[in-house]
Design brief:
Number of helices: 6
Largest sheet: 5 strands, mixed
CATH architecture: 3-Layer(aba) Sandwich
Structural class: alpha/beta
Strand order of the largest sheet: 6-5-4-8-9
Helix content: 25-40%
CATH topology: Glutaredoxin
Number of domains: 1
Length: 166
């Protein structure tokens, strides 16, 4: 039992915010309307994301699997940003200030937009109850894939490349 618990803790960090679960697989325009602001205060919403493949990544500075996947996310983002790929990093369940989060991300060379999560965005995007959680949408806003736990760079590269080509 102890080994199982350790595996669960290592595989995904538990979030402090529960949310409703809904499956919108196969539904066009599944991605809810977004009107967010980055940690720097810049608006980030539907206009900026329309027509792009979007990965929404829920994470926290205290979550080891979240930190472990940041280089993979940044690497794939760097390669495909010019092709219409966007990552929105949603910091959630984290008591770190915006300045602390930006410093944490900066030390890890994260260059994609970061926003602060709240219960509404977690519910609307079907975050679930574990971190990291990532949700990939195609250019039409259709849900492509949702996963819990950190992802490897080769797997993310495969998913993004295929989604960009569709």
């Amino acid at each position: 039992m102890r080994a199982f618990l350790l595996f669960v803790l290592v595989a995904a960090c538990t979030s402090v915010t529960p949310s409703a679960r809904a499956d919108c697989t196969g539904v066009e325009d599944c991605r809810p309307s977004l009107r967010l602001h980055t940690l720097d205060g810049a608006p980030l919403g539907d206009e900026a994301l329309r027509g792009k493949v979007v990965l929404v990544n829920f994470w926290a500075t205290w979550c080891a699997p979240c930190e472990r996947e940041l280089p993979a996310l940044q690497s794939v983002y760097s390669r495909h940003q010019g092709q219409g790929f966007e990552i929105v990093g949603v910091v959630t369940g984290d008591e770190a200030t915006d300045v602390e989060v930006k410093g944490f991300a900066g030390r890890r060379n994260v260059a994609y937009p970061l926003v602060r999560g709240d219960a509404d965005i977690e519910r609307r995007l079907n975050m679930g109850d574990a971190l990291p959680t990532s949700i990939l949408y195609d250019r039409r806003g259709k849900l492509v894939r949702r996963w819990v736990g950190d992802i490897t760079e080769p797997r993310l590269e495969e998913l993004v490349t295929k989604t960009l080509a569709d």
